[in-house]
């Protein structure tokens, strides 16, 4: 666009004409939040704050690489490159370097693999202009090292359990790193490592497939050669509840060892000062043993409720109780058979291979420990299920041993040692309540996610003569939920039992 400006002087004077030229295609200098799919001719100054390694897509048809970019206002967005561009930019795009990026492809972020960090996502292709900003640049200066981390603390993880699609970022100390192995039911390759925070809360973290082979190998090698404990930053990590509360890698996950964020440096220094304490014994907040996955129980600040209150609680959720445990039904089945691929439970006791309609292939059946246990406090008694490694730990038997005794040899389990172990002991128990429908009724079940023995005090004895609760049924009452007064946004959620009203 041309803009003419003129000025006419007095007669016999020269006429002066000014010509101002504006470019017809102005390039907009913007930040991440100002860029949408319809935005044209833009340029944005960003720093690479996370860069994953190249990985194969799920359908094995292409290779991709994820990056997280941060602008001058600390707004972050995910960018992705594919096969050809990965090789083209391999020598250019480096972690913590600053770039001017122009006209990347912008599209709405997919939600198939969890909640994205931004509503849009960039694709860096051959038509994208990328200019690195170096220290010697005359006009632009590199961005300072990043400090922004959206970390989920360990004591907040139980609140996210009901959301199976949740993906979180974690910062944690690595206490132990197991060998590469094949998972018992699915036969997928994995490696299990034990993490903890500065409150000594511990979680099992499963590195699946190539994460176990590559990042897991890096962690194992550094733990064998370096004198101090490692700290890892895991992004887009998933939460698993199948064998108790644990963490696992997912499709979009990235892992970095000993990152340079100020929060990570502080945790590294704390782990260095407390290494002897951290490695000396399992945390008192876990139910860890040498062979059983550590699982957190009753995080600090959680409100305990009575067993009687659970029956009027919402139809789905997680609760914490203090109760005694007992196996009153000694003649129940203590294990089930399930498909090694999809984990679907089957009624048969025959372990021969079969055609699984869900997996669409011939597969085998494997045993999984699963049984009912009674929970008793001074208000009521109810029954909950306990399974997998948590059940094996309680019985001090593997699922294979249980199947051999109860199904192959058709003998009853000897539970004398279990009764002795549980006798007159109080446990802090993490429960999940879920519901399922049949005909015109809705039924609710309780599952034990973790437990830990509580040290008895003189006033903590439990009355062993409570009223037996009938099986949990949500169809009999209409639940009116009430909530406690809201506190700070980072305070643990409190539970106030809802008031049941008679259904008309």
Task: Explain what you see.
This is Replication factor A C-terminal domain-containing protein. Pfam families: Rep_fac-A_C. The chain is mostly beta strands. It folds into three domains: about 30-135, Nucleic acid-binding proteins (OB fold (Dihydrolipoamide Acetyltransferase, E2P), Beta Barrel); about 155-280, Nucleic acid-binding proteins (OB fold (Dihydrolipoamide Acetyltransferase, E2P), Beta Barrel), CATH 2.40.50.140; about 305-500, Nucleic acid-binding proteins (OB fold (Dihydrolipoamide Acetyltransferase, E2P), Beta Barrel), CATH 2.40.50. About 15% of the residues lie in helices and about 35% in strands. The chain is built from nine helices and 29 strands. It has helices at about 85-90, 210-215, 215-225, 260-275, 275-280, 305-310, 390-395, 400-410, 415-420; strands at about 1-5, 15-20, 30, 40-50, 55, 65-70, 75-80, 100, 105-110, 120-125, 130-135, 165-175, 180, 190-195, 200-210, 230-240, 245-250, 255, 315-325, 335-340, 345, 355, 360-365, 365-375, 380-385, 425-440, 440-455, 475-480, 500. Strands 3, 4, 5, 6, 7, 8, 9, 10 and 11 form a nine-stranded mixed beta sheet that branches. Strands 19, 20, 21, 24, 25, 26 and 27 form a seven-stranded antiparallel beta sheet that branches. The longest helix is centred in the middle third of the chain and has 12 residues, at about 260-275. It is elongated. The relative contact order is 0.09.
